[in-house]
Design a protein that fits this description.
69 residues, 2 helices, flat
C-alpha cells in the first residue's frame, strides 16, 4: 500500500515536470511499481539501465547535431 502511494506521487511529479497531466503520471507510476515488483531484481536493473539510456538520448537530442561531431 505504501509503495503504491510513493509510486503514485513520484509518477505525478514526473508528469508535471515533463509538462503532462499529473493524474496520468500517477497512474503510470502505480503501474510501473507493479510491473517492477513482478520483474524482480533483474527487471529493476534493466529498467534503471533503460532509464539512463533514455536520459542520455534526450540530452544528445537537445544538444543538437553539433554535439555529435
Amino acid at each position: 500500500m505504501l509503495g503504491k502511494l510513493i509510486a503514485a506521487i513520484a509518477g505525478e511529479r514526473a508528469a508535471r515536470h515533463a509538462g503532462g497531466n499529473g493524474t496520468g503520471g500517477a497512474l503510470l507510476g502505480v503501474g510501473a511499481a507493479a510491473l517492477l515488483r513482478r520483474l524482480g531484481p533483474v527487471g529493476l536493473i534493466a529498467a534503471a539501465a533503460g532509464g539512463y539510456a533514455l536520459k542520455r538520448h534526450y540530452a544528445k537530442r537537445q544538444a543538437g547535431p553539433a554535439a555529435h561531431a
